Amino acid sequence: KNEVEQSPQNLTAQEGEFITINCSYSVGISALHWLQQHPGGGIVSLFMLSSGKKKHGRLIATINIQEKHSSLHITASHPRDSAVYICAGDISNTGNQFYFGTGTSLTVIP
Amino acid sequence: DVKVTQSSRYLVKRTGEKVFLECVQDMDHENMFWYRQDPGLGLRLIYFSYDVKMKEKGDIPEGYSVSREKKERFSLILESASTNQTSMYLCASSLLGKLAQPQHFGDGTRLSIL
Asked: What average pLDDT does the segment A86-109 reach?
């Protein structure tokens, strides 16, 4: 069993739809990270959160510490949002030990 | 912005060759990491380093070694490449601090061993 699990593994949406990706973790973490990986490989950090909710443009990330669960929401999805979204839990408190989910592959169709 | 640069985007090598993957970061980060990424398995840590000449094994160090002679550069070495080392390799760096820090990733090197 993985320490960090994501669902769904694959997701296809129509442009404009509201999208939710879920992440559950089974270990104590100091922070939960959401990452985005576009075709071609480079990974970009979207959010780092340890409580509550963060918003950046059309992206919203929430975390429930008691339930050990986080969600990434994309409002008004667009084809350029097509990517793999990865959640990662930092168990070290110093940014040097992450447990990664296996990723959610999102395709947004025009 | 932090820049993590990996020396090659694509690399093809032969079985038994010694392979060097280079990574350079420009933000004076203490921590540097090498991961490999395979379909269905996510990112797995090979080695990380928290200071010059310091290294720690990750989850899958077998068949790999690393070198960190300068703070900004972290090299991954495949001592004798094998076909099961065909993969995407990602380098990352982060600040060493008392609070949680994000990791900053390079663009990856897609390595094929023939």
From this structure: 89
